[in-house]
Amino acid sequence: MSSSDVAARQRPIAAAPKADTGYPRWFWPSFATPGMLYLLILFVLPFYVILSVAFGKLDPIFQTPVLVWNPLNWDTGILSFTVSNITHTDGIYHAAFIRTFVYVALSMLLCLLIGYPFAYFLSRHAGRTKGLFLALFFAPFWFSYMLRMLAWIGLLQDQGYINRALQDVGLIGAPYPFLSGKSWVLVLGLVYGYVPYMVLPLYAGLDRIPNAHLEAARDLGASPARTFFRVTLPQTWQAILAGLIIAGLPMFGDYFTQQLLANTVGTKMIGNFIIDSLDVPIFVNRGASLILVLMALLVVPIVYYLWSTGRAARERAA
Amino acid sequence: MSADQASVRGPSRRRVRDLLTNPWAKPRFLWVLGIAYVVWTLVPVMTAALFSFNSTRSISIWSGFSLRWYITDPNESVLHDPDLRHAVLQSLKLATGAVIVSVPIGLGFALALDKWRSRASGTANFLMMFSFITPELILAVSLFLLFLNPFKFIGLGTPSQLLGLGLLAIPYAVIIVRSRLLSLGVDLEEAAMDLGASPLQATRRVTLPLLSPAIFASAGIIFAFTLDDFVMVQQLARTGSDQTVAMAIYGAARTAPSPAVNAIGTLMLIASTLVISLAYLVYRRSIRRHGAGFRARRDALPV
Amino acid sequence: MHPVHPKAFDPRGLSRREFLRRAGMAGVAMPTLAAVLAACSGGAQVSPGGGGTSPGATGSNEFGTGGVGGAPYPLARLDAPVTWNIMDDNQPIESGLEPEQGATLKYLNWPYYLSPALVRAFEEKYAKYDVTVEKTIFADMPDGVNTLRASPDDFDVMFGVQIFVLGQLIAGGLLAPLNHDYLPNLSANVWPALQSPFYDVESRYTVPFAIWNTGIMWRNDQITTDIAGLANPYDVFWDDAPKNKTALLNNARDALGMAMFRAGVTDVNTDDPAVIDQAKSDIAEVVAATNARFDHNDYVDVPEGKTWLHQSWSGNVGSAFYFLPEGDTAPNISYYWPGSTDGVPGNVDNDTIVLVKGSKAPVLAHLFIDFMLDAANAETNYTTYSGYQAPMNSINPDELVGNKVVPEHLATTVVTEDQFTSGYRNLELAPDVLALWESAYQEIQAGV
């Protein structure tokens, strides 16, 4: 691993001094063209559509949104409507925003508390059954989220096993209304749905820690707890962050977990308001402006995640 | 060093000894956690699959084993209800289409990113990762509005469902292929070029075959997760024929749950498991044929 | 509007209800109902709901004559009927055409609203034209309108279109006028009062489909209040509603409308912000006290015991039967229409079948509509599948209850002549008025 190897690895092939290759500078980048077009048309352009809908007009007959493409003609009044409804305590989105952040924060924390020990187990202690546990761990990824929620509905219903077990044991007299708008059931539902996304980066991060580090710590006399806090944990900060973001960000757009597990007024999340607004033509621009506000709030963690994983990847490649 | 040698010699002996003397080994606690986690994630799904064999309509009270919801019920079983069958087909169709669309695009994208080191490639990568991390609801609603207005000629329906799933899937292909490319390193391609191959030949004859494990892995993973995708396909569906299994489960769960819906969910479960297992087997075979990658091999050598 | 999936309905045999119906209803003629309704709906009377919801100007414009103003199209009211114009570029199809060959007839519908057996019977009847019928479901009326708007050329017929969206559909150019030569069953079988209704004089674009009233469904083994005996039955939602076991209908018009009826307001098409706001506060009160859900799953939830008190459409009550064991007369499910109590207003309504302008098989579409207007077919759909009453001359509401097809304790699910004249209807609102209603409903959903 000499320095010249390192330099060679970093030298782009396309710039290699072979004058007879005849490959123009754009040859390799052109392989990315289909992907770039795809992203530009189906990712970037729709964002502009959202802006145009949010700041656009309404069709006179159907009262449906009419896009306004020219930014000069945008009517940004909807934005002040949305923002004021978020910030004022009696605004229509105020409670939902606070609630969503609380739910997501709790869920992220629980995901971490549940996911980290399992990732630790998976990466360090599963031994020969590691492959099996890996497979079992990955399984929920390809089990339909809907099927998993349906399973919980069946279990938590009034006549479901959990209620019947609790009644048989005598802990409760009548069926407990698990599915009647209980915030904690919703949070647990979110945790159940997204915890695999937490475990994955944690596992990758923990797996990367060389055994040598842990043994060195032990040889130097550290207790297991001390080793964990001084050696293992610091090396996994990046992974924890990645896990929190990968597991937490999708929760901001979740609406169906609420609809399936806790469908009442007192548990509605931002995602519910966005989706519900699409049903009422005059409110579609409200939904679009909610998306804009949500993206504005999420862009900070998103960009931070992208920057930090990019940097970590570069460090590892070096 | 001695601990390693001991572990190489006799794992079980080491475990027993560690249990007694090694303060480092807390295997029991973590084993309990590990097994508890697996049970917690898998048991509810197994229960849902089990109830698809229930003899009555309930999804919470077991009344006996029956194939009623799969075959025998004349109106509502998967075999006899055209809507349920169609949902299964639609899910399979969309998943296959998503793989066909996203793997080649993702492969090209990954190759380009790997060989193209400039500011622009960073931007391309950033854009792709941004689409990966954006919540699916936002992507789905923006595409919904796109296909309703500027792109009305495409409109909603199966083609737009496919395009939406492709958007979700491309980053997966890119990430998986790129990480494999990183582990491969440039040395093999450079060796090929030193021997006289052009860069394109080097890529085609050396790198691509070495990438086949990653390609298969991404195909399998993309198939499995697009099979069960909900938010995107729900938003972009137009008629009843665009309904997938995930949408059917959602609709039934919100109105009138029926074991027939558990049945199609279970069928999808089996399909995903088969595909993932197949992809894994192919992946392992490719690894054996093409090697785990130069860097991986190099790192495995004793220092 | 939203019936339920029947349990193990066997299309080849007679269900129990069908047998009773055939046994008990041989040759019953319609008495004075037709005459009464004709007098009331003719438009001469002042509407009970009041037509004064918008500034007095008539709504006549390019889309139709009559109605009241406030929207880009005329708004139909009981005392201001609307005759929709037939545009030059949207003429009805010619008479006497041959049905299309090999067509796929696509219809839009509420879930489980049209019997699959009837659909199959239609396919068999016209088998020589090789017709296939395909259905698409929408969850709620706005969803249906959006689906039709998004793909106007993909559908042929739409069922269950409510009165208050007709104006925008017609003005939006989504509907085609009907050629009554293909619809002999309309004049032969349907109640005379609905032959030329106030919302579509001469039935140019619509035919009626189902009628219902909106009342209260409850589990009488869990709720001991005698709701039918209350001076104001709506009060049960405010005084006695069980926590976590109460539900309201999930649309602005029905939810707010109930609060208005309770307060004695009869004009549920009002544009008065104070009235709407008061209704909003009242409903918010119910939500806060009972954690009420908003859905129309009553047909499943009430028999299963998930909900004990539900604001309901009468048709859903009939559907609830199919979730009970065979032979069960549902003694623990009760229904009451508050409009039956003296001095208390209640809602009645009907919906329609429409022909989509972009239809690729208009002749078959007409035949499909006519098939569903056949008296026997409509009755089959009502009594054995959807549970929603069809306004057919041959269906006598009194006979239904008397012959035990509809159990006595659920008698008010049947819409009688009295109800249809004394009930108040949800009519089309001007866009800015609708915005008031929808905003109020959204505020309820937001908990403010």
Question: Per DSSP, what share of the residues of chain A sits in E-state strands of 2 or more residues?
Answer: under 5%
Q: In angstroms, what separates the terminal alpha carbons of chain A?
A: 11 Å
Biggest β-sheet description of chain C: 9 strands, mixed
Which fold name fills CATH's third level, the topology of the domain at 92-279 in chain A? MetI-like fold
List keywords for this structure.
heterotrimer, A: 318 residues, mainly alpha, MetI-like fold, two-stranded antiparallel sheet, 14 helices, 2 strands, 69% helix, B: 303 residues, 2 domains
Could you characterize the architecture of this molecule?
The complex is a heterotrimer of chains A (318), B (303) and C (448). Chain A contains 14 helices and 2 strands; from the N terminus they run H-H-E-E-H-H-H-H-H-H-H-H-H-H-H-H. Chain A is mainly alpha-helical and 318 residues long. Chain A has a domain at 92-279: MetI-like (MetI-like fold), CATH 1.10.3720.10. In chain A, strands 1-2 form a two-stranded antiparallel ribbon. In chain A, helix 4 (94-125) packs parallel to helix 8 (183-208). The relative contact order of chain A is 0.11. Chain B is mainly alpha-helical. Chain B has helices at 2-9, 11-21, 27-51, 68-72, 82-115, 119-133, 136-148, 158-184, 187-194, 199-227, 231-235, 245-254, 259-290, 294-300. In chain B, helix 6 (119-133) crosses helix 8 (158-184). Mean pLDDT of chain B is 83; it is low at 19-23. Chain C is of the alpha/beta class. In chain C, 33% of the residues lie in helices and 14% in strands. Chain C is built from 16 helices and 11 strands. In chain C, the strands form 2 sheets. In chain C, strands 3, 4, 5, 6, 7, 8, 9, 10 and 11 form a 9-stranded mixed sheet that branches. In chain C, helix 3 links the parallel strand 3 and strand 4. Residues 1-56 of chain C have low confidence and may be disordered. At the A-B interface, helix 2, helix 4, helix 5, helix 6 and helix 8 of A face helix 3, helix 5, helix 6, helix 7 and helix 8 of B.
